Design the sequence.
């Protein structure tokens, strides 16, 4: 009986192909909107996560000042190089600590200028930032201790100043000093905030302090934790140590902050997820509207087929059989809309993901859920018209013109 | 329409009381009507006599076959009121009617006489306000909606004035529809529908949709749909109302054949005397009651030859005047 009813429903849908198509259009749009939104949202979340993890894994950034973000570190007491050594030697669970001093400088080479970020640090900076060397070598201990005029350059700097030339071994003028390029950093691409991470020149920290900035400030400490370390415990340890070293009374607030990049990643991807859900919810409303469309057409269909219903009842169809017939028709329509919606959503997601440069992943649960939801909409909005059909009086229905 | 062989088996299959019923004993409260109707004993002679000699069977007394008291259908004191209070309309005002298995009854009457309401009640589509409706001894008036649906699906076939075929659906599929609700397997449905279509002379037209068929052919499809379930009773509501005379006669011949050859009891509402002439019995409704109930001594179908004029029709028009019936 169920199979027969299904056949009846399919036949009736085929009989009114154009109207059936218009009926399911709402569901098609709703389902494809939901799936596309969620797929793109998930892609954006993935992109954010991968970009932040590119900053460094298990990375803590320690900065002067009370708040994270721009302006926080400007006036606060900077760190010293010895702070980095103290953290490295006294806190457990740490893989590497890199002191970081920054400056902007105009670079000159081969008669071309380029303004870039100059960072003074140690070889640990490469470790904490997940940097690889494309060619050349790291700093030697002697170069680090003596503040030698050597540097590593990023891909952007190479492209701007040394296009088509050998870069390792060349001379690069950074402000007033000329340094020898000993290595090229492998490209990392765009950062989490759209910044170009490859636009960088790395020199030994002493070189920067003595010969470029002229002070011994350290702008931040980059702490790379060992795998499996508890970030909370490490953060607490660093905080306590630095409070002592910065001679803060127990009533004073911290004049520095420790930022966990993992936490940052979670926060950012959390935001993207909320946005995804919001967009998905808006799209779900269109699904609801699609459901009302189905109800509307089913009501029209029931009215139009009053005589047919009367006949079916007269020849002995039970109330529930008529109910089932129209219910199944509505569900088949809605589910069909869901299927078409999934196909369209897959195409749209692929295209838009490419356009927006976010990764595309087929999200099975969203597809299945949307399909099931559209079928449920068919049941919910098909029930009322179907019940109306089933409750008809066969005599009146047969007389209906 | 030649004589009907094989009739006895069919009827005994169909009705538990197939041995025949005596209208006399069945309707004790209706002396006049029964005396008028007593010679018929339709259920029996048709069942018993394979050859079914035309008039003699009608006139022969019930005789020894009057053993079962229950007719196929028995209406007792049926009333039907539509609406309430001042606007209430009493469509039926106490109808008593017995119908034997194998009978062919034409129900006539002016519009508003209650014939349609009576037909709907007989078809189990409507329930009486008061009164009893016994179908093979079953109290139909007490049945629920679904139970009546099952009764219709099992025992009744319907033919309508407007054919009521499903549009854009082949004749075959239209005929299969009632079988679908009886839960028959696809192969059985196909075979039965094909057989029913063949029996109404539409072999080869199985895959045509109603739009591709003439009115007469459409009504044949509708009849095939009604008889495909091998019902005990065929209820036809003005089956020829939308057809020209020639087509009407063909349909009536078909109904006549079904009645005679297959033992299907036919109840037909009509306002055309020509068509009523095919019936063995004519019941006239006036103002919500049975105004007359008479045997048709010479049913038109017996004159056979569809194309030929039907003398029975003329005779019927001059049949005895209306006889008010007691209730």
Sequence:
């Amino acid at each position: 009986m169920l199979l027969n009813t299904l056949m009846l429903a399919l036949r009736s849908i085929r009989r009114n192909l154009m109207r059936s198509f218009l009926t399911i259009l709402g569901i098609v749009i709703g389902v494809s909107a939901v799936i596309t939104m969620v797929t793109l949202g998930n892609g954006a979340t993935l992109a954010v996560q991968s970009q932040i993890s590119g900053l460094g894994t298990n990375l803590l950034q320690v900065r002067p000042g009370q708040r994270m973000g721009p302006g926080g570190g400007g006036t606060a007491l900077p760190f010293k190089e010895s702070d980095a050594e103290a953290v490295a030697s006294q806190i457990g669970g740490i893989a590497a600590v890199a002191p970081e001093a920054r400056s902007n400088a105009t670079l000159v080479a081969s008669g071309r200028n380029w303004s870039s970020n100059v960072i003074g640090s140690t070889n640990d900076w490469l470790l904490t930032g997940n940097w690889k060397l494309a060619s050349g070598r790291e700093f030697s201990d002697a170069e680090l201790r003596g503040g030698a005029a050597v540097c590593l350059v990023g891909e952007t700097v190479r492209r701007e100043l040394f296009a088509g030339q050998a870069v390792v071994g060349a001379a690069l003028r950074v402000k007033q000093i000329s340094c020898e390029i000993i290595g090229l950093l492998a490209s990392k691409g765009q950062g989490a905030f759209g910044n170009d991470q490859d636009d960088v020149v790395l020199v030994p920290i002493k070189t920067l302090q003595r010969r470029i900035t002229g002070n011994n400030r350290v702008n931040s400490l980059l702490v790379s934790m060992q795998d499996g370390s508890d970030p909370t415990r490490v953060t607490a340890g660093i905080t306590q140590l630095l409070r002592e070293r910065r001679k803060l009374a127990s009533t004073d607030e911290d004049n520095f902050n420790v930022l966990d990049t993992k936490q940052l990643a979670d926060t950012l991807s959390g935001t993207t997820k909320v946005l995804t859900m919001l967009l998905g919810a808006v799209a779900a409303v269109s699904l609801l509207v699609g459901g009302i469309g189905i109800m509307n057409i089913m009501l029209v269909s029931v009215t139009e087929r009053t005589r047919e219903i009367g006949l079916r009842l007269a020849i002995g169809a039970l109330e529930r059989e008529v109910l089932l017939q129209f219910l199944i028709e509505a569900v088949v329509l809605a589910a069909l809309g869901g299927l078409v919606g999934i196909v369209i959503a897959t195409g749209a997601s692929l295209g838009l993901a490419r356009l927006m440069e976010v990764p595309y992943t087929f999200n099975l649960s969203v597809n299945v859920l949307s399909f099931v939801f559209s079928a449920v909409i068919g049941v919910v909005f098909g029930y009322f018209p179907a019940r109306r059909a089933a409750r008809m009086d066969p005599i009146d229905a047969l007389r209906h013109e | 329409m030649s004589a009907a062989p094989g009739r006895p088996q069919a009827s005994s299959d169909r009705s538990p009381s197939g041995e025949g019923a005596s209208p006399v004993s069945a309707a004790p409260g209706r002396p006049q009507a029964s005396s008028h109707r007593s010679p018929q004993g339709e259920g029996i002679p048709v069942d018993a006599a394979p050859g079914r000699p035309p008039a003699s069977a009608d006139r022969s007394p019930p005789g020894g076959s009057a053993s079962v008291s229950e007719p196929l259908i028995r209406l007792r004191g049926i009333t039907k009121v539509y609406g309430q209070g001042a606007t209430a309309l009493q469509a039926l005002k106490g109808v008593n009617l017995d119908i034997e298995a194998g009978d062919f009854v034409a129900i006539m009457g002016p519009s508003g006489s209650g014939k349609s309401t009576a037909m709907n009640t007989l078809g189990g589509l409507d329930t009486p306000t008061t009164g009893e409706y016994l179908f093979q001894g079953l109290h139909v008036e007490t049945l629920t909606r679904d139970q009546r649906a099952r009764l219709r699906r099992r025992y009744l076939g319907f033919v309508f004035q407007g054919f009521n075929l499903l549009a854009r659906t082949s004749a075959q599929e239209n005929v299969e529809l009632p079988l679908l609700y009886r839960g028959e397997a696809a192969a059985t449905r196909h075979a039965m529908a094909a057989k029913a279509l063949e029996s109404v002379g539409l072999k080869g037209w199985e895959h045509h949709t109603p739009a591709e068929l003439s009115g007469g052919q459409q009504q044949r499809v509708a009849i095939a749909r009604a008889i495909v379930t091998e019902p005990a009773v065929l209820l036809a509501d003005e089956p020829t109302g939308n057809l020209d005379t020639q087509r009407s006669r063909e349909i009536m011949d078909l109904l006549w054949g079904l009645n005679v050859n297959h033992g299907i009891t036919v109840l037909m509402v009509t306002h055309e005397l020509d068509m009523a002439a095919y019936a063995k019995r004519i019941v006239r409704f006036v103002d919500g009651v049975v105004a007359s109930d008479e045997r048709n001594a010479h049913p038109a179908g017996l004159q056979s030859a569809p194309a030929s004029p039907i003398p029975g029709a003329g005779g019927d028009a001059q049949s005895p005047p209306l006889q008010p019936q007691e209730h």
